[in-house]
Design brief:
Layout (H helix, E strand, L loop, with lengths): L3 E2 L2 E2 H12 L5 H8 L3 H13 L19 E9 L4 H11 L5 E6 L6 E7 L2 H12 L5 E8 L19
Antiparallel strand pairs: 1-2, 3-5, 3-6, 4-5
Helix pairs in contact: 1-2, 2-3
Length: 163
């Protein structure tokens, strides 16, 4: 039996590595790539999905071709950080399509948002009409991204990479 690290053995990790690059690969091709037959590969894939390691499959879009290549990172400071205020802010953020990511931060501000729009005019409208009106927002600071150097989502981390 293969050694398990964090509940995943070497074959599970191979499955994740392959799917991170090609989420549309057939089970037969996946089995060939990882060195198992189709049935055990299919069973492992199903277990990884049921255990929530694989949360879903989706298409990755080219933001430039879709006209949404303007990225801003926004620090948000709240006037109230009690749990009820955080819950209100979190629920409201989920309703704003232009907010691609939202992270609660330990530091000098409370949240970091990644906002994607078609340009500066669109961003200014989102900031004024949506972000600034979110519950308990007292201050924002914006940082414009000039280039995305790495932006492909999470990839499985192999045990040897330390991470």
């Amino acid at each position: 039996m293969a050694e398990k690290i964090d509940g995943l053995d070497v074959f599970d990790r191979k499955i994740l590595d392959v799917l991170a690059v090609d989420g549309r690969i057939s089970v037969t091709a996946l089995a060939q790539r990882i060195g198992l037959s189709k049935s055990p590969t299919q069973a492992r894939l199903r277990r990884l999905e049921e255990d929530g390691v694989i949360r879903g499959y989706r298409a990755l879009f080219d933001a430039i071709r879709l006209g949404r290549d303007h990225v801003a990172f926004v620090e948000v400071k709240l006037s109230d950080t009690r749990e009820s205020a955080l819950a209100q802010f979190n629920a409201a953020v989920m309703q704003i399509a232009q907010i691609e990511q939202c992270h609660l931060i330990a530091g000098s501000f409370d949240y970091l948002l990644k906002v994607r729009t078609s340009g500066m005019t669109g961003y200014r409208a989102v900031l004024a009409d949506k972000i600034s009106t979110l519950p308990h927002v007292s201050h924002t600071s914006t940082y414009m991204a000039m280039q995305a150097v790495k932006e492909e989502g999470i990839s499985p981390v192999s045990p040897s990479s330390g991470g």
